[in-house]
């Protein structure tokens, strides 16, 4: 075996920036296989042209891309690798945007107080019959789900046609962010004495919501886009706990005015949380 074009694992480690332990691991997982393994000593040798591949592996792992995904990307076309890196960049920029917004929100709460930023009022919500499409997901899939769900809901509503009794709204049964999944329901309220929906697709139902008292605040423009809108949820939750009420159901995001573009200045959302008097101990 001509070893003049080969580097022993120690030298290859220095050239690639990967530890000897990491190189052994990538060999065992099939990500970076040495060009030659001495049958007597078991010592690994790598070709010089494998250095750039090893450096790419190091960079991909530093981006927290799993080993199996790294192997798939390196075995695929260059276009796939470019697309994956661009997707990773967008995700990193989005996380940075969320973190920046969270810091600004916390600073605002510390200097101004939540209620100075979001005025909370109480209104009575009427009993409603609603057309519902639900799914369990986290925030990364929320926009796509809502677009698809409302397309289906309005298609079904148009067959009646249904008589709407209020704006569309979304119910969140728990925390929906980048780390937590919850049941999310897209809802259309309609007149119970008018035309009724028929031939509902799988996963779509009709539900009855009882009359309820709602603690509410409204946000407009950029404040209605994620993650800025989270401050409105926090303000309503703080108001409910601070005034001694009990949470009585999933929080609602009501589309009071919506252009279809998340940060459009004309957008207006209402965050409405069902409340009740606290139960006596």
Class computed from helices, strands and strand pairing? alpha+beta
Give the N-terminus to C-terminus distance in angstroms: 83 Å
Rg estimate, integer Å = 27 Å
Q: How many domain units?
A: 3
CATH architecture of the largest domain: Alpha-Beta Barrel
Task: Specify the overall morphology.
Answer: elongated
Instruction: Please give the count of helices.
Output: 8
How does this structure look, described?
The structure is a single chain. By secondary structure, the chain is an alpha+beta fold. The protein has three domains: 71 residues, Multidrug-efflux Transporter Regulator, Chain: A, Domain 2 (Orthogonal Bundle), CATH 1.10.1660; 34 residues; 156 residues, Regulatory factor, effector binding domain (Multidrug-efflux Transporter 1 Regulator Bmrr, Chain A), CATH 3.20.80. It is 38% helix and 25% strand. The chain contains eight helices and twelve strands. Strands 4, 5, 6, 7, 8, 9, 10, 11 and 12 form a nine-stranded antiparallel beta sheet that branches. It has a three-stranded antiparallel beta sheet with strand order 1-3-2. A hairpin with a 6-residue loop joins strand 2 and strand 3. The chain is elongated and about 85 Å long. It starts with 5 loop residues before the first strand and ends in a 5-residue tail after the last strand.
């Amino acid at each position: 075996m001509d070893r003049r074009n080969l580097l022993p694992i120690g030298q290859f480690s220095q050239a690639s920036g990967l530890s000897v332990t990491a190189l052994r691991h990538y060999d065992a997982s099939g990500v970076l296989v040495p060009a030659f393994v001495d049958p007597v000593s078991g010592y690994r040798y790598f070709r010089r042209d494998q250095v750039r591949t090893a450096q790419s592996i190091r960079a991909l792992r530093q981006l927290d891309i799993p080993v199996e995904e790294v192997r798939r990307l390196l075995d695929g076309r260059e276009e796939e690798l470019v697309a994956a890196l661009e997707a990773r960049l967008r995700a990193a920029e989005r996380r940075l945007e969320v973190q920046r917004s969270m810091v600004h929100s916390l600073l605002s709460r510390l200097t101004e107080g939540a209620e100075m930023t979001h005025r909370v009022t109480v209104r009575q919500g009427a009993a409603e019959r609603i057309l519902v499409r639900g799914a369990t997901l986290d925030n990364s899939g929320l926009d796509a789900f809502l677009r698809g769900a409302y397309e289906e809901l309005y298609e079904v509503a148009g067959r009646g046609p249904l008589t709407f009794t209020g704006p569309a709204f979304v119910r969140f049964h728990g925390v929906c962010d980048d780390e937590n999944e919850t049941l999310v329901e897209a809802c259309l309220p309609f007149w119970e004495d008018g035309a009724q929906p028929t031939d509902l697709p799988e996963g779509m139902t009709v539900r009855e919501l009882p009359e309820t008292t709602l603690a509410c605040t409204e946000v407009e423009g950029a404040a209605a886009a994620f993650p800025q809108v989270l401050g409105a949820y926090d303000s309503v939750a703080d108001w409910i706990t601070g005034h001694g009420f009990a949470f009585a159901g999933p929080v609602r995001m009501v589309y009071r005015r919506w252009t279809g573009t998340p940060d459009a200045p004309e957008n207006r959302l209402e965050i409405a949380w069902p409340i009740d008097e606290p139960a006596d101990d």
